[in-house]
Specification:
It is a single chain. By secondary structure, the chain is an alpha+beta fold. The chain has a single domain (3-80), classed as 3-Layer(aba) Sandwich (Rossmann fold), CATH 3.40.50.150. 36% of the residues lie in helices and 27% in strands. It has two helices and three strands; from the N terminus they run H-E-H-E-E. The chain has a three-stranded antiparallel β-sheet with strand order 1-3-2, with helices on one face. The chain is globular, with a radius of gyration of 13 Å.
Length: 81
């Protein structure tokens, strides 16, 4: 991964680990996707890395949605333990 993607994934992992330490049973994470080159179908840059980082802390992705209202769009992820 790149430096920025690594940093974002590391931050997501830290938040996920803290939520486990706080005995949370759900964890919601909003990932600002950033600008994309086109509006066509394709991967959401960095989203897979964020999901993998959070799941490595002990969570499992339960639901997700895309928030078009954010400046460049955002992925809202709901995880359960």
């Amino acid at each position: 991964m790149g430096i920025v993607k690594d940093a974002k994934a590391n931050i997501a992992h830290q938040h996920a680990a803290r939520a486990i330490n706080e005995d949370r049973i759900v964890f919601v994470y909003k990932y600002a996707a950033g600008p994309t080159a086109t509006n066509f179908s394709g991967p959401i840059a960095g989203a897979a890395e964020i999901i993998e980082a959070i799941e490595s802390a002990g969570w499992r992705l339960h639901q997700m949605t895309y928030d078009e209202g954010a400046k460049h769009g955002a992925v809202v992820l709901l995880f359960r333990r």
